[in-house]
Amino acid sequence: MGVVSPRTEPMALEATLPWPPSVNHYWAARGNARYLSPRARAWREEASWRLRAARNGRGRITREVAVFVFAYPPDRRKRDLDNILKAILDALVHGGVLKDDWQVAEIHLIRRRPEPGGRVELVLEEIDP
Fold first, then answer.
1. b/e per residue, 23-41, with b = 16+ CB within 10 A?
2. Taking the CB of the first residue and of the last residue of the chain, which one, N or C, has fewer CB atoms within 10 A?
């Protein structure tokens, strides 16, 4: 992947994820009930699998982390970049990387050039207490 962060802490995770659904497509509703949309559920399962593979059996991270998100959108459309964060943070918890997303002390979200299909390069670094 070759992503370099400006921090000096040891890297806890490095992974490539498919482009996530935005928060606008993350939820579905039936009556008063809200639930993950089928698209969001499929993305979360794929992302969780990739995150578990990248963690390579090391278990959950227990300390606070800095998250670096390098977003390569699927096209040049104008979009709110922060709309992808919910899906990414949920996948980190669902995939067993973090116990809870309160462990995220820093988020660095960087937009890169568009690529067909889009992707997200994710780097997590543990933060010293």
1. eeebeeeeeeeeebeeebe
2. C
